[in-house]
Amino acid sequence: MRVSFALLLVSALVFAGCGRRHVARRQLPPPPMPQQGTATSSNTERGKVPPAKSSQPAETEQDAEKNYRGVKPIYTETGIASWYGTVYHHRRAANGEIYDQNGLTAAHKTLPLNSTVRVTNLSNDKSVLVRITDRGPFVGDRVIDLSLGAAKIIGLYLPGTARVRVDVLESPKDIASGGRWCVQIGAFDSYEKAAQLKEKLLQRYRTAKVLQFTGPTGEWLRVRVFEDNKQRAYEVAKETRAPEGVFVVRLD
Questions:
Q1: Is beta strand 162-170 parallel, antiparallel or unpaired with respect to 246-250?
Q2: What pLDDT, in 10s, does the model give residues 183-194?
Q3: How far is the C-alpha of 6 from the C-alpha of 110, rounded, in Å?
Q4: How far apart, in whole angstroms, are the C-alpha atoms of residue 95 and residue 195?
Q5: Are the beta carbons of 119 and 164 closer than 8 angstroms?
């Protein structure tokens, strides 16, 4: 009896041990694959792109000043300047580069892209050389939007706006004539408001192309007139009323 019971106990332990080894070898299902669209990085937000190096060679402020010392302006205007930064930082500018708020660049509605201009704060006579890489400002009658870095140099950062003189020192294209032009309207606080005006413009200007797009500050409309003609763009802007603002913009 005792021998039989001992044999049965040993057999049970052996089989139990075999059962544990079998569980350890069992193949578990692979973990689920990550789903698209679940990234939380700020670079995945609409309209943003990862930071990238500028397509232009690096140049210090001192180098730029040396290169343009004594160069006479080919075009001059005065008006109110402002600055733009965080909302547009690391977004693609109108000339295709990635905007760096700490660089020395600016946005202008009508000067050819990649023009080099000197901006002088008329209240303190401080100046900075910047390159036109973007379009704007789309606020009232302001003439130029400086990068945060440029605004700090001429004492524009804290007050936010200042009266300035804009001297164009070099431009890749003719300023007075030519170019591709459009009318830009916005920013709308809702998609529906922009869509309603878009339909009205399509009915009024059948030869124009009206594009609705979402920018960092809301919905926008862009009216491309026939052959991107400058005179026709100004005519359309004059005939169009919108509380969000109507601006003539050069595309190139």
A1: unpaired
A2: 999 999 999 999
A3: 99
A4: 27
A5: yes
